[in-house]
Specification:
Blueprint lengths: L5 H11 L6 H18 L15 H4 L3 E6 L14 H16 L3 E4 L8 H10 L3 H18 L15 H15 L1 E4 L4 E4 H10 L15 H9 L4 E11 L4 E3 L18 E10 L5 H6 L8 H11 L1 E11 L2 E7 L10 E4 L6 H4 L19 H13 L3 H4 L9 E8 L6 E6 L11 E4 L5 H9 L47 H15 L2 E7 L4 E2 L12 E3 L5 E3 L37 H4 E5 L4 E6 L13 H6 L10 H8 L12 E4 L6 H15 L12 E3 L3 E7 L5 E2 L5 E3 L2 E4 L2 E8 L11 H7 L2 H10 L7 E2 L6 H12 L18 H19 L3 H18 L5 H11 L4 H10 L16 H4 L4 E7 L2 E8 L5 H10 L1 H7 L4 E7 L3 E6 L1
Parallel strand pairs: 1-2, 1-20, 10-12, 20-21, 22-27, 28-31
Antiparallel strand pairs: 3-4, 5-6, 5-7, 7-15, 8-9, 8-14, 10-13, 11-12, 16-17, 16-19, 18-19, 22-23, 22-26, 24-25, 25-26, 28-29, 30-31
Length: 959
Amino acid sequence: MSETNPAATAPMAADAAPHRYTAAMAAEIEARWQDFWDAEGTYDAPNPKGDLAGDPELAARPKKFIMDMFPYPSGAGLHVGHPLGYIATDVFARFQRMTGHNVLHTLGFDAFGLPAEQYAVQTGTHPRVSTEANMKNMQGQLRRLGLGHDKRRSFATIDPEYYKWTQWIFLQIFNSWYDDEAKKARPIADLVAQFESGERAVPGGRAWGELTEGERADVLGEYRLAYASDAPVNWCPGLGTVLANEEVTADGRSERGNFPVFKSKLRQWNMRITAYADRLLEDLDQLDWPEAIKLQQRNWIGRSEGARVDFPIDGEHVTVFTTRPDTLFGATYMVLAPEHPLVEKFTPAAWPEGTHDAWTGGHATPTEAVAAYRAQAASKSDVERQAEAKDKTGVFIGAYATNPVNGERVPVFIADYVLMGYGTGAIMAVPAHDTRDFEFARAFELPIRCVVEPTDGRGTDTSTWDEAFASHDAKIVNSSGADVSLDGLPVVEAKARITEWLERTGSGRGTVNFRLRDWLFSRQRYWGEPFPIVYDEDGIAHALPESMLPLELPEVEDYSPRTFDPDDADTRPETPLSRNEDWVNVTLDLGDGPKKYRRETNTMPNWAGSCWYELRYLDPHNSEQLVDPEIEQYWMGPREGQPHGGVDLYVGGAEHAVLHLLYARFWSKVLFDLGHVSSAEPFHKLFNQGMIQAYVYRDARGIAVPAAEVEERDGAYYYQGEKVSRLLGKMGKSLKNAVTPDEICAEYGADTLRLYEMAMGPLDVSRPWDTRAVVGQFRLLQRLWRNIVDEATGDVTVVDAEPDEGTLRALHKAVDGVRQDLEGMRFNTAIAKVTELNNHLTKVGGPVPRTVAERLVLMVAPLAPHVAEELWRKLGHTDSVVHQDFPVADPAYVVDETVTCVVQIKGKVKARLEVAPSISEEDLEKTALADEKVVAALGGAGIRKVIVRAPKLVNIVPA
């Protein structure tokens, strides 16, 4: 027998099926329809002004605004993990169009930021050049996926026409203050009017007209929602820049470069987000967000109720915030943050008589001790300072405070476990009932007094304790003074009594505190939005008028910040913008004649542009206002079920749970308060997609090796003959395991890639990538094609005949299930139902009825739009499949024709009956008792009881 030559038969197979759905055909179909959609504006979303006015039918449609989180245009381009969310929103948007909605779906680019600037430093390429090249590459990759974006609405945050309005919003915030009585932001001019009229007292007691311009600016700076202040920052001389907390390692060094990082005070811009803490918390309840994300925001805001207590020191006082004022009698020492502004004021020149040797840190004077400890603390990150396991360190500053409740003198320490960024930067230490305070007290031989009676039997003698006793469910003890006693009270009542005493005696007050800190808004970078702020010769900040916006970034020769000796903590940043003297020093007329000014040389953080981009999608070419009110109201205004308005669906990673989402919510609320928008929240519904993971292979050195070149042999993995380890993790270029969508599109087509990513599992769950499994979805499309098109001739094979009963039921069950799954974003199960129907048609064989084929194509259209568009046209239609109505199931065919009823006698199954789903209990009982098998099993025995659970169970109890 001669052997068949595969190489010889391959051309014959191709000739025999010239119209088979192949990768080459998919590429041709996809490119052609993408060109068509672009030319026809298929995905252009009409706005209420103009577009909808002349089309009553379209105007009557409900709207749906669907968004992806802003992508950053990386030079590495996309790998297959990136498009997961984009494909999902595209499928959902297509389904919404087919169910009668006016859909807005588009995508822009968050293009300011550090990566482009780092590339510029390394290569000398202007960040705009590299960023625009990256965007062009990414746009090509996204287009190839067939994403149905309204491209008229796309933009990048680096477009001056865009960041003009970012700067404008900054000025709205700068020119606003938060009115605690009205619970909203108001123009700063209203506050000035109150000071001028005497309605509001000027801090310090002087009249507003008596203050100098500088003094007025200082007063208003204490109220403005955007303000400059000397803020503690993470200063890295070796990099020449300030770092975010997330960029500092646990051992107090820079994540990039491993340089020392110091705590330093610099003049920085801040956003007073803390003014909105309560509203940011309360409004979470009205948002359709994952509970895990809500919890992260609640924890980050960190609302806690307690009291502020004033501890007198040398004729003045230090205020502490505590959630346990009921333990005030147990406070035996105080701790200030090392950077607390009052430390120097209260530090004497010499140690007080009788100072404990353990308190001095071995230094001759308090001044020396404080200076040395401050330097030590400045080299640590906040994370490291608060680590529970580390040894407790600190130093006595040489001063004593007075406990207001009992008059006791308590020593004042500084210690790095107290942060200036939480509460007041000072704590009253109750070591018996706080773990950190207990450890500190033991280390420094400080008194430990029990004031909350232990419930674990240890007694109140703290000398026998090994750890603190912390409980909110116990009685207060040892807490009686001259005019107040808490003894015997439970914690809640004790808190109320001591708070009332503090307020009555002027020693403190009940208050609410937040973990949330004001948003540090300055960056010592080049590639960011310039601040629309200038300073006069007296250093007073002035806002640029709207007519001078946008303030564009100037050209600079050197994009890198100046670096210094890595260990020199006393250095200060020199920003790239500060080197362009012609830009920095300007003469402007701000309404009172030409004067010399100096521009702000910091830039805004990369978060700024993404705080409001949803609004620009609505009205992207408006040069006269932020957004047209009618357009904003239509797409984002409040409506039933969405009391605060916002985007209907926002999809992105859970890693943005706090920073981006919290900042965007803050900006929305300010714009809402000032009357610029009708939506108080930016995003009504949030969905977090999972991650596409990939195996990372590492050699004996722990270095990643190319995953594509790894061989599997007998359950082990080898690279170039050497054994390597395998671990499931992220996908990325640096891990050498990235697969690009271009590769998959070239081998199978974009529709196959779309189907595979949606079929891998539930959208909100991470899943491993397996290139070998992609072919399964390619075969689905090939079977779909064969069910409609003759592979030999290219002719459509459907027939105008009625489908049989089984096919009708399969069709309508699929329609019903797919519709529900797409609405619920269960795309993997929707694909399974499409596959089941397609396989049914293949199994039945013969020409497919036209009514079935058309509905199948319509169901496929959101998932695989290119092949659906091609088949829709082959079926004789001239309108795009994109705007067709999604099929509706006939309920009569969705319900099973029969169901299986189990008949039991004495708990054992004796018969199975096929009955109608709607059968009554009476009819089901008669049918069961008449069944031959049941009659035989009873053997003439009488029946004591029959239990019927129609339509699936009959249980017979013989007499």
